[in-house]
Amino acid sequence: AQSVTQLDSHVSVSEGTPVLLRCNYSSSYSPSLFWYVQHPNKGLQLLLKYTSAATLVKGINGFEAEFKKSETSFHLTKPSAHMSDAAEYFCVVSALSGAGSYQLTFGKGTKLSVIP
Amino acid sequence: DTEVTQTPKHLVMGMTNKKSLKCEQHMGHRAMYWYKQKAKKPPELMFVYSYEKLSINESVPSRFSPECPNSSLLNLHLHALQPEDSALYLCASSSRTESTEAFFGQGTRLTVV
Question: Among residues A50, A63, A65, B62, which is most buried (max CB within 10 A)?
Answer without folding.
Answer: A65
